[in-house]
Amino acid sequence: MSTQPKVRHAISPTRAENYPEWYQQVIKAADLAENSPVRGCMVIKPWGYGIWENIQKVLDHKFKETGHQNAYFPLLIPLRFLQQEATHVDGFAKECAVVTHHRLEADEDGNLQPAGKLDEPFVIRPTSETIIGESFSRWVQSYRDLPLLINQWANVMRWEMRTRMFLRTSEFLWQEGHTAHATEEEAREETVRMLHVYADFARDYMAMPVIKGRKTPDERFPGAVETYAIEGLMQDRKALQAGTSHFLGQNFSKASNIQFLDPQGVQQFAWTTSWGSSTRLIGGLIMAHSDDDGLVLPPLMAPRHIAILPIYKPEEKEAVLAYCHKLKAALQGKFLRELPIYVEIDDRDIRGGEKAWQHIKKGTPIRVEVGPRDMQSDSVFVGQRHLQGKVSMSRQGFVDTCETMLMDMQAALLAKAEAFLQANIHDIHDLESFKAFFAEEAPGGFARCHWHPAAIGHPVLAELKVTPRCLPLDQAGIEGVCVLSGEKTTEQVLFARSY
After folding, report:
1. Domain containing 245: what range?
2. For residues 56 and 278, what is the distance between their CA atoms, to the nearest angstrom?
3. What Cα–Cα distance (Å) separates residue 496 from each residue in 221, 446, 465?
4. What is the CATH number of the domain that holds 205?
5. Going by fewer Cβ within 10 Å, which terminus of the chain is more open, N or C?
6. What pLDDT score does 2 carry?
């Protein structure tokens, strides 16, 4: 009886063997981040931070295109600010880290102890609606001051009990937009506009298709009138909330006293929004595209696009390196859309095979090997991260087509992710089928079900560890029966297990 030899992969365990551990090992092998001495926090290493810089670069440009300006607000928020909006403080109370003292003093044994108790504690920002609202209350006096469109790039602290790098950490990096408007209609339009900005970014740059939708009342941001989100589906068929946009109504403007005189001279409360995305997007990139050999990056998100790997004996070094530098120079000035192509000559003293595998595990989109034989034929040996094997190409042919190769990879990753998403959305019409779909041994995915608000808090959801992800924006309004409550309804919700 013959047996197939087991295929060896760079990442162990594989996705099929242990997906959560595979995820951690991909991060380690790609040298993206590591745990810090502070529980639940992480050190983002250069390759991981380079991905975040690309996310920032693109999103920041999109925000400015839609009229927003960047500002910065304090890390510490007076406790009384959070208490001004009751739903908001209730939603974040268990996650807050609180500063109560302003200095350290040594005790009799020489150990440092907190001293100088503050008259009022400060909360390390879990989000900034309240402190930004205080500024808005001073900046807005007249309808002529509106709309006020502000974005902040910052860090946030939410004291998480169970953490996972990039997906859920106690401290994380993000951007948070905050806007104030003269009318409800303008604020609602802003909320949906920014949702579309996030969705377009996820699809066009991350090659990660998402579902745009409205959150059910029990899943709304604390204090919001409506919350909208983009939801992606990871390779283990769990959902990932990748960005949110909140219509806050007048709740926060009343709490922070953001008022203005309208054209008739009548005092009005502003209508406000907030919206945000974070380093969780990097976790989404990892889980949406990577394989059992490591990280796979869409080229538009890669910190470096082409790694040139010189191969030589000591006496060949000078000539091979000169050829590599000539190749790199020919690639300078090329772009993927608005982003420059970054090229590295990796001349580290590491064996060629090991060096190539390091780039595979890091997700470098293209590897180019150059040795004396390639020089003789004026050619290069090219490997693409998403394809098996390597091919020989003329040097000029590679220079002329590298942009196309990278954008073809971007398109291929998107097509694969779109096919996966569509194949894993299933219509479920009754409770028994719902339970079977989310049974422990079942693969899972998105269950598209008719839903009625009477289903909020249904015990089967906690039992199956399933949540309503969103009510998709593009649903037809077909009448049906809620699978959980049995009530007639025209609304459908996507249910899933999630991160």
Report:
1. 19-77+129-289
2. 10
3. 19, 5, 9
4. 3.30.930.10
5. N
6. 44
